[in-house]
Design a protein that fits this description.
The structure is a homodimer of 341-residue chains. The first copy, chain A, is α/β, with parallel strands linked by helices and 341 residues long. Chain A has 2 domains: 204 residues, inorganic pyrophosphatase (n-terminal core) (Alpha-Beta Complex); 123 residues, Diaminopimelate Epimerase, Chain A, domain 1, CATH 3.10.310.30. Helices cover 39% and strands 17% of the residues of chain A. Chain A is built from 13 helices and 11 strands. The first copy, chain A, has a 6-stranded mixed sheet with strand order 6-7-8-9-11-10. Chain A has a 5-stranded parallel sheet with strand order 2-1-3-4-5, sandwiched between helices. In chain A, strand 6 and strand 7 form a beta hairpin. In chain A, helix 5 runs antiparallel to helix 6. Chains A, B: It comes from marine metagenome. Chains A, B: One of its GO terms (molecular function) is nucleic acid binding. Chains A, B: It holds the Pfam family DHH. Chains A, B: This is DDH domain-containing protein.
């Protein structure tokens, strides 16, 4: 292996290894509504722990999404956090490991379950309010938490169960948007190179994650594209998901994944928006910036938030009104960025 | 740099370096209808040659596509192969380097121009009929010719002009379909890691290549999705580009890039097809396989060909007839693959 872990990470990794090595039972968890990085990191660490003799279980605040269930090698690895079994398991565990978040509110109902346990955090998010206490390996320069788990296993000298390699690849693939977001670094690419050299097949994984699209999603895309609007002069584009089609097709929130990238990728666009009616809740707006505009600030004006280039808000009011207000504010934000502010 | 060139490539690289080092003038060329790998490899090698004191010029059989013009740092690097200047340049050159193809028919009109020159081939395609003679570095295990150019410059110990790093990244990015085709290897990922560590920005390049989509392309996609058909049982899906919309939108062939990936990515599909009427020529059919079916063999039955997972054919006849014949043959091919043949 030609990969070398960055010097700056070694100390935190060693403290994590000290805290989790040689234990009988470990409980792993991640944030609510887990994604590829949360689940991938859990599976990779669990597979490694089991390979070195620790019984590792995954207890999440919300179920593993359907799209990442293929990473679970055996149902017995995952325990429903609402079950009596979960309570019993956590009562008898030696350590809890929180992955892909470092703050208390994000682990939901699992907080109570692991309250008395020594806790380890491995996470690549910026430190938030109400951090989880205990030993931690936090590094916001990492593309994904899966990258940090790789470093832990690498420092431990392996072993490298096959499912763990796949899971770490999925973690980095999904959190970097297939190696195209700005968090894609030389380090993350070196790590996926190692994973591929050990047998992970990029085209098979890609097909598994992005290449098995339910048919309804294409119909939803078709009817949403019919509502694509572009203001070329202002450098903004927006698309609306028609509520009647959404219902008629039996669509689910997963079907909207990546849809905001259509308006965002229109030639000359600085900010792309997606509007979607959520019954009894309001209009969900997704904001994507191509760099110049801080859409986190923009979304905050509507009670939402997120990252500088990707944010969202849930806004009350009729669709026409919300669309008018948001596109107006977005035009202003692009103009401001163009005038150098 | 942690990257190491594979031992198996060293001998060919050294023969190439001997052939191109210390020359006054070099002419670089690639195949007709060049792509990101052809143009990227040319720019990278030209930038390196110029940095070590050789005047390097690009003389292609067909113009550099609009989408890759941003890689050309100065117009004077590229000389029109139909001009008297090109003839004069080639007459006085010391060496010709053919990139991203190794066969005579593919370099079109440039063949006559470089006929009397010592010739070097750098290419990642399987050896074809009528190979170009001379010194060569051919390796079909490489994801892209840009990867082989990287190895040449790496072996030479640099220098690494910025535009060359960008050009090699584009070469590998485009030929691996953004690191998701089956040709994505640990070596290609290690190389892009090096390029990123030297300053290439994955999100900026991705946006440049895939994120500036002309508006008409979304309208064309919308009307094509309306003609998406799925035969779930057979495991095939096909989409037809409506000819009237294509004309009305003023679409160009570039606008169809990647469109066959929509039918291909439908859940449960083994083979995706795209049909398009070409005036006075017939129906252009694109075939994409998710692995089990050899679409090269399938396309050959219709007078076309290509690769095992990506092929095409131009078929005479009315749309309905061609679509019927091709979907019928595709169903048979999937069936055959399922029965284990």
């Amino acid at each position: 292996m030609t990969y070398q872990t960055g010097e700056g990470r070694i100390k935190a990794i060693d403290s994590v290894l000290t805290a989790i090595r040689g234990k009988e039972t470990a409980v792993l968890t991640t944030h609510t509504n887990s994604d590829g990085d949360g689940v991938g990191s859990e599976i990779a660490l669990a597979a490694w722990l089991r390979a070195v003799g620790t019984e590792a279980f995954i207890v999440n605040p919300t179920p593993v999404p359907q799209s990442f269930q293929f990473l679970i090698p055996d149902e017995s690895w995952v325990v429903d956090s609402t079950s009596a079994e979960a309570q019993e398991l956590c009562d008898g565990a030696d350590v809890a490991v929180v992955l892909d978040t470092g703050v208390i509110p994000r682990i939901g109902r699992v907080r109570r379950l692991i309250d008395g346990l020594p806790t380890v955090v491995i996470d690549h998010h910026p430190p938030g309010d109400r951090p989880i206490e205990g030993v931690s390996f936090r590094d916001a320069s990492a593309s994904a938490t899966g990258e940090l788990v790789f470093d832990v296993i690498h420092r431990a000298g392996g072993p490298w169960p096959e499912i763990g390699d796949l899971a770490m690849y999925v973690a980095i693939l999904t959190d970097t948007g297939s190696f195209r977001f700005s968090n894609t670094t030389a380090t993350s690419l070196r790590i996926v190179a190692e994973l591929v050299s050990r047998g992970v097949s990029p085209d098979e994984v890609y097909r598994r994650i992005y290449g098995t699209v339910p048919r309804r999603r294409f119909h939803l895309l078709e009817s949403s594209l019919a509502l694509l609007e572009v203001d070329e002069e202002a450098g903004i584009a927006w698309m609306t998901v028609p509520a009647d089609q959404y219902d008629a097709l039996g669509a689910i929130p997963d079907d909207l994944e990546g849809m905001v990238d259509y308006p965002r990728s229109v030639e000359g666009v600085e900010v792309g928006l997606l509007f979607r009616q959520i019954p009894r809740k309001g209009i969900k707006v997704s904001f994507r910036s191509n760099g110049a505009v801080n859409v986190n600030a923009l979304a905050r004006r509507f009670g939402g938030g997120g990252h500088v280039r990707a944010a969202g808000a849930l806004i009350e009011g009729p669709m026409d009104q919300v669309r008018h207000d948001v596109t107006h504010a977005t035009r202003e934000a692009v103009e401001l960025s163009r005038s150098g502010h």
